[in-house]
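Sample entry (71 residues):
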Amino acid sequence: LIIIWFIERHSGQYYEALIFFRTQNDLGQLIKFFLNAVIDIAKSGVENFQSVLVLKEEIDLIIIWFSKNLE
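Predicted structure, serialized as tokens:
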């Protein structure tokens, strides 16, 4: 599903690689395209995970603050 999102976002590059494969019988451009997709998606996943960790730390601090102030 995420790969489809990447293809839609980079449709021009995808179709160029696909046409190159059809006309030149060279799979290299398509492989490069999908490797770039995997790299981009992985980077995005890391950024999202880091954001979740920062949010968790903030929530943990809020919980600690409330638990100390309720006593």
